[in-house]
Every structure is written in C-alpha cells, then in structure tokens.
Specification:
six-stranded parallel β-sheet, 12 helices, 351 residues, Rossmann fold, Transcriptional regulator, 3 domains, 434 Repressor (Amino-terminal Domain)
C-alpha cells in the first residue's frame, strides 16, 4: 500500500497564493517532481499516485503556474538567461553565451537575455519572464551560497540548468561547472616544478563558492608538497587597485609566486610587483584564472587557468534540452577540467 497523505501541513484557504508545489508534495507523500509529473505528464504516474496528488491539489487549492502547467501544450521556444550586474566571472561569459546560443539555435530555441534584478526583486524578474513571455526554461549563472533560484524553479516545475554548483543546502537540478580547485592545483604543480617554494594565493573574500573552490585547490596542492605556511593567503574584491593593495603583504613576506582567483586580481599583482621595481615572471611569478582576452596582451603575457567555456555552454544546453524532454529523469551534474595556459609571467624561481 502506498503511504497515505501527510496530515501535518495545515490546509490553506481555497485558491491561496501561498500554496506551493512542495507543500502539495508533502501532503500527498510524494516528491515535488511527482507533483510536476501529475500536472504536466500524468501518463508517467501510476493511477493511484496520480489520484493522490490530484486530491491534494484540490484540497489545498493549489494553482500551478501558467507556464509550468502549459509546457506540454504551448511552447514559446524561448530560454531565459539573466544578465547580472558586473562581478567576478561576468567578463568571460561571452564564449559561454555564444556556445549556449548556438546550441539552442540548432534545437529550434532562442536565448532571451534579461537584466536580472538583485535582492528581493531577484525572483520577481524570473516570475515576470514566465508570465509575460511564457519562457519555457532558464539557464542560471553566478550561483552562490544561499542562492534561491534553483529551489524556486524546482518547486514550480520550471526546467532549468545552472552554470555552477549550489555550493550549500540541498543540491537540486542539473548543473555544469568547471573544476576550479583542479585549476589552481595545476598552477601550483607547475610553479613547484619551476622551483617555487613560497606560493601565495590572492582570492576573493571567503564565502564565494567558486572563489573558495579555487582557494581549496591551491591549499591542497601546497599540502601535498609540504609547503603550507601561515600568512600566504590574501583576499580582495575583484578590482585591480584593491588587489594591488591586498597582495602587498604577500610580497613583503617573500613569496616567489602568486596564484590569483581571477585575471583581474592577477592584474593587481602585476601593479604591486611593478611598484616594487620588479617584473612578473622574473622576481615574482603570477598566475591568473579565466584566461581572459587581456591575458595574452599584457607585457609580460599572463599565465592563466582557462575555463572550457564553449564546452560548458554546449553541455548546459544539452542537459536543459534533455530535462525539457524528460522532466522525470534523474539530475545530471557535469564537472569539466580547466587547463593551465603558460605564458611569460610564470617563470623559474629566482635565486
């Protein structure tokens, strides 16, 4: 016998806007995906399960979102992507967006870019896209600790894929990400092979998912070589001037190399090294992350960890199209390896 409905949640008034798919799922004793299937692909469910969900829907007065309810009968062929205010990672999204758009076009979809609001308005911008344009699905980026978007979309049965992990809480939905820890670890390995023994790290303030991931790879590689030492890590916002000030204590402490969490932070290292009369790659080696378009143009050229952003875009769209085709399939997660691009800023340890 299947489990009976959960009697614990109170039954809101008929038509209450506060009723969510998750609440219906708890009352029916099923998953939110099962509720979504009952609304959108009922043929996937056993008759008794379908009846239990429908009874919970009726009793709680749940009204599914128009876009989620009509996915099987109407498709806008639009996939939403929110462009967020400038921040770490935004400057290298062009390659990702091109691959994403190209893959979507090949499948008959168009990417709809919109200005994603922040704070309390963040989810409202997604709600408006669903209501005004009937967007079929979303691609998310800049995922972070406490990010509400994945759970919000999952709860409403809206297909989505994320460029980035959840980093905290329940891991829901499909995602593609780049292994940042592997990238910074590869930078340390190359620096060690060049004779460096005091390798610092300049990262973003603690609490950034991708930033913490990159810092962990640096620390893990140092530990593997017995090179851990206090005072070799500094933090800065993604700003050249701030990064130059933040890295100065590392230079004063005698580091022979710095691995940075972004190319912008690496530019701050360039400025700080130049301020002491040095040259990156000679007195102090510098390695960035993202291999942005400016990296090969610097003098000396900036060594940097390159993300396979084209592959990320293609994989993200593949996962999203598969999710739209089969809402009940298990979540899929893809972690892609980056590659270290060696340029003149990565040299042998001096002395």
């Amino acid at each position: 016998m299947p489990p009976g409905p959960d009697p614990s949640p109170p039954v809101p008034a008929q038509g209450s806007g506060s009723v969510t798919m998750a609440m219906v799922a708890r009352r029916a004793g099923v998953s939110t995906q099962t509720v979504s299937n009952a609304l959108n692909t009922p043929e996937l469910l056993r008759p008794e399960t379908l009846e239990r969900v429908r009874r919970a829907v009726d009793e709680m007065g749940y009204r599914p979102h128009r876009a989620a309810r009509s996915l099987r009968t109407r498709a806008s062929r639009l996939i939403g992507f929110g462009i967020e205010p400038a921040g770490p990672g935004n400057l290298v999204l062009d390659r990702f967006l091109h691959a994403l758009s190209e893959t979507a076009d090949a499948a008959g979809y168009r990417l709809l870019l919109f200005a994603a609001a922040s704070g309390q308005r963040e989810l409202a911008s997604y709600e408006e896209l669903l209501g005004e344009h009937g967007v079929d699905a979303f691609v998310l980026s800049n995922t972070r600790h406490g990010d509400p978007r994945q759970a919000w979309l999952e709860e409403r049965g809206i297909p989505f894929v994320a460029f980035g992990r959840m980093w905290s809480g329940k891991d829901v939905g499909d995602w593609v990400d780049v292994d940042g820890a592997a990238g910074t670890a590869s930078a340390v390995e190359r620096l060690v092979s060049e004779g460096h023994g005091r390798i610092g790290f300049l990262g973003w303030p603690a609490g950034s998912g991708s930033g913490d991931d990159r810092a962990e790879g640096w620390q893990r590689a140092l530990r593997a070589h017995g090179l851990e030492a206090p005072g070799l890590r500094a933090e800065s916002v993604d700003d050249v001037g701030a990064a130059a000030r933040a890295v100065q204590p590392l230079l004063d402490a005698g580091v022979t190399a710095v691995v940075a969490a972004s190319d912008t932070l690496a530019l701050g290292c360039y400025r700080a090294v130049a301020n002491t009369g040095g040259v990156p790659g000679r007195e102090v080696s510098v390695v960035g992350f993202d291999d942005s378009s400016v990296a090969p143009l610097l003098s000396p050229g900036l060594a940097s960890v390159a993300q396979p952003l084209g592959d990320v875009g293609r994989e993200a769209m593949r996962l999203l199209l598969a999710r739209m085709s089969d809402p009940a399939k298990p979540p899929e997660r893809v972690l892609l390896p980056p590659a270290l691009v060696v340029r003149a800023s990565l040299g042998a340890a001096s002395g």
